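Suppose a colleague, Dr. K., hands you the sequence of a protein chain of 192 amino acids and asks what its three-dimensional shape might be. Before reaching for any lab equipment, you can write down a predicted structure in token form. Begin with the sequence itself:
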Amino acid sequence: MPRPHRLAPAMAVVVLATAALTAGGTAHAATANTAAKTPTRTTLAATCSQAYLPLPDPVCTPGATNPDVTQDTIDDTICVGGYSSSIRPSTSYTNRLKIQQIAQYGYADTDTADYEEDHHIPLSLGGHPTDPRNLWPEPRYSTGPADQTAGDKDTVEYKLYRAVCNHQVDLVPAQQAIATDWTTALSVLGLS
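The predicted structure, expressed as tokens, is then:
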């Protein structure tokens, strides 16, 4: 007999699919139906902790870098206008992953619109575009002791990107700082 704790995430996917169909959203319905067919990962119990918010669980989402981006290549990759857009994964990929990861994080709110499928190490700092270890469903709403949002992280990402491309900070220390704790990354690097 299946254990109840293993059914909850699968039920979340069914609820998402039903909600999308009821709302008449064909694009959302297709995404939810695709996620429901994804093997194993959507049927796992909540395996990632929300205790780290506004940061991701470091075991589930440690971050991953793009091997094409190094200190020697930044002027030809991340520091070129439009680079991040050119390697950003499709929403069909990120939406499917977001549904899986919402279940893995055990979020009570399963509305995908309330989460940004965020690159832990941003594309603009050489984060891997599609590696699930670098993507997580970051709440758009305030979380953590300082009530921070995904928008707050975006501001930090941009400041780090400018510092790297202006050669004020090397790439690897910027990647390490944001992967460790984006809320302190600027001060750790002396940029606050």
